[in-house]
Amino acid sequence: MQRTLVLLKPDTVQRSLIGTLVSRFEQKGLKIAGLKMMNMTPALCDEHYSHMTSKPFYPAILSFMTCGPIVAIAIEGHDAVSVVRKMCGLTAESEWVSGTIRGDYARSIDNNLIHSSDSEETAKVEVARFFQDNELFTYTRSLNS
Ligand code: ATP
Ligand code: MG
């Protein structure tokens, strides 16, 4: 069982798509282990996108990610990192496919609705970055723990 981090970016909140996107993961059978609305501070954004801070488009990422509240979600399930990443869709607009979250709802690479961890190692670091231990929940479901 793996945990992965999803961030619903400010455009998801602004477009009232929180429930729609959370439903996708619930309908897939993935388990919500933690969920909270929060503001992404500039310092947190620098840390989270540390692999991007030298890119020319980083100021746009920083401005976007701090323009309004986000929703952080810890998602649990078999092979959750890869499954969630595939459900979100690829980065480049030209690669967006219908049936993925970005393919169905995103408007541009700058307003791409959702972040998901890109590897098992990253997921561990990212879940810990956004959630304290006491904000993560373990519970049983009758048909699928
Ligand atoms: P995220 O980490 O936000 O989930 P991702 O993993 O699909 O997205 P990354 O390579 O981690 O893509 O890039 C982080 C963010 O940087 C992307 O969400 C996108 O907004 C922006 N970005 C990435 N590549 C480009 C690019 N070539 N031009 C403009 N913006 C880009
Ligand atoms: Mg990424």
Please, could you describe this protein's structure?
The chain is of the alpha+beta class and 145 residues long. The chain has a single domain, classed as Nucleoside diphosphate kinase-like domain (Alpha-Beta Plaits, 2-Layer Sandwich), CATH 3.30.70. Helices cover 39% and strands 18% of the residues. The chain is built from seven helices and four strands, in the order E-H-H-E-H-H-E-H-H-E-H. It has a four-stranded antiparallel beta sheet. The longest helix is centred in the N-terminal third of the chain and has 11 residues, at 18-28. The site of adenosine-5'-triphosphate (ATP) has 10 residues, from strand 4.
Share in helix? 25-40%
- CATH topology label: Alpha-Beta Plaits
Task: Provide the CATH superfamily.
Answer: Nucleoside diphosphate kinase-like domain
Q: Hetero groups bound?
A: adenosine-5'-triphosphate, magnesium ion
Write the CATH architecture name: 2-Layer Sandwich
Tag the structure with descriptive keywords:
single chain; 145 residues; alpha+beta; Alpha-Beta Plaits; 4-stranded antiparallel β-sheet; 7 helices; 4 strands; 39% helix; 18% strand; binds adenosine-5'-triphosphate; binds magnesium ion
Could you provide a short overview of the structure?
This protein is 39% helix and 18% strand. By secondary structure, the chain is of the alpha+beta class. The chain starts with a strand and ends in a 15-residue tail after the last helix.
Helix and strand topology:
Blueprint: E1 2-8, H1 10-14, H2 18-28, E2 31-38, H3 42-48, H4 58-65, E3 70-77, H5 80-88, H6 101-105, E4 114-116, H7 120-130
Antiparallel strand pairs: 1-3, 1-4, 2-3
The structure holds adenosine-5'-triphosphate (ATP) and magnesium ion (MG).
Adenosine-5'-triphosphate binds next to strand 4.
